[in-house]
Amino acid sequence: MENTSALRNWLKKFDSNHPFLIAGPCSAETEEQVLNIAYQLKDSNVSVLRAGIWKPRTRPGNFEGVGALGLSWLEKAKKETGLLTTTEVANPIHVELALKHNVDILWIGARTTVSPFVVQEIAEALKGTDKTVLIKNPVNPDLALWLGAVERFYKQDIKNIGVIHRGFSSYGENKYRNIPEWQIPIDLQQKFPDLPLILDPSHIAGNRKLIFELCQTALDLNYDGFMIETHHDPDNAWSDAAQQITPDRLKEITEQLTTRNKKS
Ligand code: PEP
Ligand code: MN
Questions:
Q1: Which residue's CA is minimally distant from atom 9 of ligand 1?
Q2: pLDDT digits (tens, 9 = 90+) for 144-192
């Protein structure tokens, strides 16, 4: 298997005193909201603005994203703030539209990683591009399924690949919305040591109070970065309100995190 040092080298371009940081709302809601958050993140350690445009919701009836319209908001935010952008793609049409609107990084959601047919279609749609792709773990604790998705992108010559650990679903009441199962990403890293590993504490926690401790655990395990849901008015967010934090809180968290085992 080829290694992914291309992406790791790319990550090194960012300030090495801080983990690579992706932040922004769970969902793009309005143009004003996207720009407001982007401007608040502009002069911080954040390198990439995230916002979901197509939102896979477990049950119907919830806000399912603004759709392609949101891509022009991301493009505008990028132009005005200089932040790179990322959004979730869940089929080849999403890929085509995201490429057209110059989204820098595409992420594969946890409900997509479970489906080899869809992963294959997305990987083929990206063949021949130099896009960066971040692959979230599948919702279920199945390492082979996660590895399989990574391999499908490699096989289409996509070189800039990273993985996002967002926890695993389970039944019943738990401290976490999605159980971290830290051993699974550790096992994945053993197989692909050059694959940058990013923590999504927001979807693991489901609750903003747990974000800091999850980030600290990940840093102690030498993770490369974070994707953290950040909203100017978290309590009134249209999706995932309980787990989002403000840009000010994000700044506090990143300042308080200590790097104990920094990669050389
Ligand atoms: C998200 O990042 O907003 C999202 C839907 O994540 P996941 O695929 O991890 O549930
Ligand atoms: Mn979310």
A1: 110
A2: 999 999 999 999 999 899 999 999 999 999 999 999 999 999 999 999 9
Tokens of 46: 């954040």
The set of residues, in sequence order, having a beta carbon less than 8 Å from that of 208 and lying 6+ positions away, is 234, 242, 243, 244, 245, 249
* pLDDT band of 196, cuts 50, 70, 90: very high
Q: Is the CB–ligand 1 distance for residue 50 below 6 Å?
A: no
What global pTM score does this model have?
Answer: 0.95
- The ligand 1 atom at the shortest distance from the C-alpha of residue 112 is 8
Q: Give the nearest ligand 1 atom to 107 CA.
A: 2
Type of residue at 2: E
What phi, psi does 60 have (nearest 5°)? -70, 165
Ligand 2: distance of its center to the CA of 245 in Å?
Answer: 12
| Residue located nearest, by CA, to atom 4 of ligand 1 | 109
The string of DSSP letters for 67-98 reads TTHHHHHHHHHHHHH--EEEEE--SHHHHHHH
* Binding site membership of 25 for ligand 1 (Cβ less than 6 Å): no
Residues that place a CB less than 5 A from ion ligand 2: 26, 240
Q: Is 165 in the pocket of ligand 1 (CB under 6 A)?
A: no
The tokens 């100017």 sit on which residue?
232
> Residue 109 CA: which ligand is closest?
1
For the chain, list the domains and their CATH numbers: 5-256 (3.20.20.70)
3-class DSSP state of 228:
strand
- Helix axis angle for 116-126 and 143-155, nearest 10°, is 30
Complex confidence, ipTM: 0.98
The pair of structure tokens assigned to 223 is 């993770």
Residues 6 or more apart whose Cβ sits within 8 Å of residue 114: 138, 139, 140, 142, 145
